[in-house]
Amino acid sequence: MAENIMTVNIVTPDGVVYDHHAKLVVISTIDGEIGVMAHHAPIIAPLVIDEVRVRRVDKPHHEDSIAVNGGFLEFSNDLVSIVANSAERARDIDLRRAEYAKQKAEDTIKVAEEKHNVDELARAQVSLRKAINRINVSSHRN
């Protein structure tokens, strides 16, 4: 393998979502966005709900987009491992389902605010962030 190449794996409880060789990965952590390239210092970081962008070796002018809903990143020995509760590649996102989830979350937020139900409000806000993330990532289909 070439010396400036790393492997990117994204796994969920349902299995492997993504597994490719890459030159660059851009990831949003709780401390901000980071870019990781081969030979980066080892790192472990918690992730936020956001898009992971991967510049693959076999498609140097293209980025794969993956909607990741939190989790954590570990990088060492030129291996990026992302473990998340859920993740979807842009090409696999059902846009209608994501838009429905967004509308449902917005409706739930409205009701929770009226009833001052902070627990329901917090859950609905997370659901809304996940739906918006999926909608945004789906626009990067190949």
TrEMBL record:
<dbReference type="InterPro" id="IPR001469">
    <property type="entry name" value="ATP_synth_F1_dsu/esu"/>
</dbReference>
<dbReference type="GO" id="GO:0012505">
    <property type="term" value="C:endomembrane system"/>
</dbReference>
<dbReference type="GO" id="GO:0046933">
    <property type="term" value="F:proton-transporting ATP synthase activity, rotational mechanism"/>
</dbReference>
<dbReference type="Pfam" id="PF02823">
    <property type="entry name" value="ATP-synt_DE_N"/>
</dbReference>
<dbReference type="GO" id="GO:0045259">
    <property type="term" value="C:proton-transporting ATP synthase complex"/>
</dbReference>
<dbReference type="Pfam" id="PF00401">
    <property type="entry name" value="ATP-synt_DE"/>
</dbReference>
<keyword id="KW-1003">Cell membrane</keyword>
<keyword id="KW-0813">Transport</keyword>
<dbReference type="GO" id="GO:0005886">
    <property type="term" value="C:plasma membrane"/>
</dbReference>
<keyword id="KW-0472">Membrane</keyword>
<keyword id="KW-0375">Hydrogen ion transport</keyword>
<dbReference type="InterPro" id="IPR036771">
    <property type="entry name" value="ATPsynth_dsu/esu_N"/>
</dbReference>
<dbReference type="InterPro" id="IPR020547">
    <property type="entry name" value="ATP_synth_F1_esu_C"/>
</dbReference>
<comment type="function">
    <text>Produces ATP from ADP in the presence of a proton gradient across the membrane.</text>
</comment>
<feature type="domain" description="ATP synthase F1 complex delta/epsilon subunit N-terminal">
    <location>
        <begin position="6"/>
        <end position="87"/>
    </location>
</feature>
<dbReference type="GO" id="GO:0005524">
    <property type="term" value="F:ATP binding"/>
</dbReference>
<keyword id="KW-0066">ATP synthesis</keyword>
<feature type="domain" description="ATP synthase epsilon subunit C-terminal">
    <location>
        <begin position="92"/>
        <end position="138"/>
    </location>
</feature>
<comment type="similarity">
    <text>Belongs to the ATPase epsilon chain family.</text>
</comment>
<keyword id="KW-0139">CF(1)</keyword>
<protein>
    <recommendedName>
        <fullName>ATP synthase epsilon chain</fullName>
    </recommendedName>
</protein>
<dbReference type="InterPro" id="IPR020546">
    <property type="entry name" value="ATP_synth_F1_dsu/esu_N"/>
</dbReference>
<keyword id="KW-0406">Ion transport</keyword>
<comment type="subunit">
    <text>F-type ATPases have 2 components, CF(1) - the catalytic core - and CF(0) - the membrane proton channel. CF(1) has five subunits: alpha(3), beta(3), gamma(1), delta(1), epsilon(1). CF(0) has three main subunits: a, b and c.</text>
</comment>
